[in-house]
Amino acid sequence: MKITVLGSGTSQGVPVIACDCHVCKSTDVKDARLRSSILISAEEENFVVDAGPDFRQQMLRANVKTLKGVLFTHEHKDHLGGLDDIRAFNYRENRKMEIFSTQRVYEAIQKEYHYIFSEVRYPGIPEISWNEIQLEPFKLPNGPMVVPIQVMHHKMPVLGFRIADFAYITDAKTISEKELEKVKGTKILIVNALHRSSHISHFNLEEALEFINKVKPQQAYLTHISHLFGLHEEIEHDLPEGVSLAYDGLTIEI
């Protein structure tokens, strides 16, 4: 199984529109971060976790030619704002896109993309097949087993996902002991760390490192990174052994 980080930035991405800070003006490609998403390549199929506003750009940049499904963590715009662009895969592969989400997220998709569900079928609209997920493990079609992990994004439930020895968690602020047990023992962990200061709905660096210490993976990567965190190269110097910053284009073999 191969994991590709398609985006490692926050809801605004990096650089941020109209910002002249040293991070947004950096020439280091690792400081340019699209909205958070990963590509899972397993058993000859590709799946993405979240399809935010940068989905089209991410698919082009990663040269993705086939896509079986999209797993959604939650309904915020930076995680589902690019769903319309699955149309290209509908056409190329002559099949519906498999969508995996909770009932709540599906209801948000129905509102955001109401034309997909209209009785009058306009030519060329996205074609989806919804699969409801809760907190029980499920199998991806022609793919691996997935264990959903519920975290809290302030007061909003968000799903992370574990596949074998890999776990991906974004937009987390708190997690119950029961859900934490699902993550323990994973070898590779990607988890959100917004910046150094405290935040109402995201782990900051200190909280992310505390979480990593509880999970004890062989390697952890930080994602959902704000321009307020600092330069990639500078942050790397402050991280403990076994913890690194994720960056767009990072690939991990599991």
Question: Could you characterize the architecture of this molecule?
Answer:
Strand 12, helix 7 and strand 13 (243-245) form a beta-alpha-beta unit. The chain has one domain: Metallo-beta-lactamase, Chain A (4-Layer Sandwich). Strands 6-5-4-3-2-1-14 form a seven-stranded mixed beta sheet. A seven-stranded mixed beta sheet has the order 7-8-9-10-11-12-13. The protein has 254 residues and is α/β, with parallel strands linked by helices. It is globular. It is 20% helix and 27% strand.
How is this fold's topology laid out?
Elements: E1 2-7, E2 37-42, E3 45-49, H1 55-61, E4 69-71, H2 77-80, H3 87-93, E5 97-101, H4 103-112, E6 128-132, E7 138-139, E8 145-153, E9 156-163, E10 166-169, H5 177-183, E11 188-192, H6 205-215, E12 219-223, H7 232-237, E13 243-245, E14 251-253
Parallel strand pairs: 3-4, 4-5, 5-6, 10-11, 11-12, 12-13
Antiparallel strand pairs: 1-2, 1-14, 2-3, 7-8, 8-9, 9-10
